[in-house]
Amino acid sequence: MNTTATATKKVFGYLPPDAPPWGAMISLGFQQVLTMFPATVLVAILTKFDIGVTLTASGIGTIVALLVSGRRIPLYYGSSFSYITVVITTMSLYASDCFSDPATFYCPDGVRIVQVGIMATGILEILVGLLIMRIGKEALDKVLPPVITGSVAIVIGIALAGAALSMAGANWTVAFITLIITILFSVYLQGKGLIGMLPILLGAFVGWLVSIPFGLVNFGLIGEAQWVRMPAFTFPGFTDPNAWAAVTGIALIAIATIPESTAHLYQMSLYIDQLAKELGRTPFEIKKLIGLNLVADGSDDIVVGFLGGCAGTNYGENNSLMAITRCYSVPVLMAAGVIAILLGFIGKLAAIVNTLPVAVTGGLSIYLFGVIGMQGIALIQSERVNLFEPRQLAVGAIILVTGIGGNLALENGMFPFPIRVLFPSGIPAIVFAAILGILVNLIFLIFKPSRFGVEDRENINL
Fold this sequence. Notes:
By secondary structure, the chain is mainly alpha-helical.
């Protein structure tokens, strides 16, 4: 272990290039997998993806992203909640059998369609990353300011409210017990080490136990499952015209995930450089690698999209674990990737997860989807967006109403404006909202209010 002796203490920790002993590497890697497991698997459950494929793809995608970054950026990749709304909308539209039966755990027809869109997301992220490496992040921020990215994040979370309540309605008692227990775990277990980072897993387990007396747990699934099985990998539906119709809608969700990924990079850079300072080593300054980080993100999405896993993102939960353990070792994260790959082949594990009742998933979703929306508010707040300024209010307002209202009120959550090839059945509400917000913001960039004698209103200063 790397240490630096001082007069009063020894400093412990692993920086990105450091490789712990094998025993420590495996145990630290398993902690990383345990941390990402609840959220990653829950996304697969909600979107009817194969759990084994999702775990295996998460591991492979993480390893590929680490290699693409030159083993300089220590981030673990799991399933992204940001894509759930558009994935469910797409699968409901083009593979209607996916969500008609609550007993359906995996819908390959819908997955094949979505895979093409996930891979397109990866390509878009890579292009944005290369663009940032050339022109800088400031130019991109003008086109995608926090009022847009934050508002889109709010839409992503709140637009799923109907789906969350529908699942919870399978058994309101179980759903609300799960909800309250999960909230209590997330609040009162903070700072309690690894267990404090697993409120979703713990909440799901308690909800599962509560469901047993209600007869909601199908133990037969576990008995029927094989111990070892090949994950249900699927090939993207490149020849399906519906897949290409979904490409633009899915890829545009990167509008919300790019700022999230950048925020994670800044956070990790602070932690890593502080440890490097304490160890007397040169700072890594990975915050300067914004473009490369997005190229790594895109590489992960191309991998998981090709294999049939859920769209990915680097995980804040795993970042927090690294901050707690002071282990930012890339070899540890690669070990975690290998462990996740192996877990994907355990059939009994997927079967146990599939016994989770719909009501429990609904209770978890009420909390998680709401948190996604609140994170959008937090982004707007942290970036001190001036909501006293009419143009900022206008951009945010139209995104919220068209995104949330369109998803909840319009048929299939689609605006009835078909566009050949891109949106032949209409434009998904969340995509329509994002495009509308970007276009209105561009009007203000091209025709700056200051050119017409309009002065910016003063922002509140608390």
